[in-house]
């Protein structure tokens, strides 16, 4: 089994699982991310504990890539300091733009590395980065 099919499997599993797809009770931050070109529409909900992301979830619909990317991102950011979460966003977007290729740097993305080759499919890039841009929006609004 090659790496690409393992990654494809991972994306499909996250798309199916839905363990991060729910509404939170009294979220501190709610941010909608919408990609009109392919109909991805997600709403990210975050619960903060001081400077930490205590919990996160999402609702909405979209293609397998946007749904899986959102779910994997949520797994990664739960329990992180806001600053570390924003750092992951930059790393993920850097990976997609092929600006960050250093394996050691990318390791912190864990399962999100599955989206590394999406940069070869320009039409799908927006799907993969939607949640990450939405998270950045929400956290930046919060810090102002």
From TrEMBL:
Annotated CDD domains: IscU_like (cd06664)
Family recorded in the similarity comment: Belongs to the NifU family.
Domain annotation NIF system FeS cluster assembly NifU N-terminal: ranges: 7-126
Pfam families: NifU_N
Gene3D superfamilies documented for this protein: 3.90.1010.10
Name recorded for this polypeptide: SUF system NifU family Fe-S cluster assembly protein
Native source species: Paratissierella segnis
GO molecular function: iron ion binding; iron-sulfur cluster binding
